[in-house]
Design goal:
Helix content: 10-25%
Bound molecules: iron/sulfur cluster
Number of helices: 4
CATH topology: TIM Barrel
Strand content: 25-35%
CATH architecture: Alpha-Beta Barrel
Strand order of the largest sheet: 3-1-2-4-5-6-7-8-9
Radius of gyration: 17 Å
Order of helices and strands: EEEHEHEEEEHEH
CATH superfamily: Aldolase class I
Length: about 210
């Protein structure tokens, strides 16, 4: 299997429960909810995306076989922590992440986190599944580690996810021209629903990737 990768880089996770932990981010190219082209944004199912996942032209981007991808991941790990961790993100990584890649990463004892929109099923063996559901989509993932709702979204009520088998529930203010209002609404939602916690995009606040 050849994996199409937009970019690969070392940083600290900026969002959710794993905020502040070192990770290699592997950003897969492509998403099933938007083409990634600005001309299609208004008509996309998901129109508030803040990520460039189009193509393979980012830092360390390209077409990889599993073996070469793992070598690249190892070469970029500069943390003093011996445990190598990756976030497989996108775009929508589950369009490409398969059993073969999970098994190859596991053989190298690499901790695997995935960030997905939840519309596709995930292969077994992933250590941390973060699902960020989008309005007007059918959710296929029923269990995982954290739900992270970008808030507010028209036609998406976070209450609907309480029944799913996830351990952590986060509300994250949508990064848009209404950001201050989105923060206020997010804080209010968390205060009224104590099983939901606030997630901020700390990498943006700090100006790091
Ligand atoms: S689902 Fe995620 S990656 Fe895809 S367009 Fe929406 S925010 Fe971007």
């Amino acid at each position: 299997m050849t994996y199409r990768i937009k970019e690969i880089f070392f940083t600290q996770q900026g969002e959710g429960k794993n905020t502040g932990k070192d990770f290699i981010f592997v950003r897969f190219s492509g998403c099933n909810l938007w083409s990634g082209k600005e001309k299609n944004r208004a008509s996309a199912i998901c129109s508030f995306c803040d990520t460039d996942f189009y193509g393979t032209d980012g830092i360390n981007g390209g077409k990889y076989q599993a073996k070469d991808l793992i070598e690249k991941i190892k070469s970029l790990w500069i943390s003093a922590d011996n445990q190598i961790r990756v976030v497989l993100t996108g775009g929508e990584p589950l369009l490409q992440v398969d059993k073969g890649l999970i098994s190859a990463l596991k053989k190298e004892n690499i901790y695997i986190a995935v960030e997905t929109n939840g519309t596709l099923e995930a292969p077994d063996g992933i250590d941390w599944i973060c699902m960020s559901p989008k309005a007007n989509t059918e959710i296929k993932l029923r269990k995982g580690s954290e739900v992270k709702v970008v808030y507010p979204q028209k036609n998406l009520n976070p209450d609907n996810f309480n029944v799913l088998d996830f351990k952590n529930f986060y509300i994250q203010p949508m990064d848009s021209e209404n950001y201050e209002d989105n923060v206020s609404q997010s804080v209010k939602y968390c205060m009224q629903n104590p099983n939901w916690k606030l997630s901020l995009q700390t990498h943006k606040i700090l100006g790091i990737r």
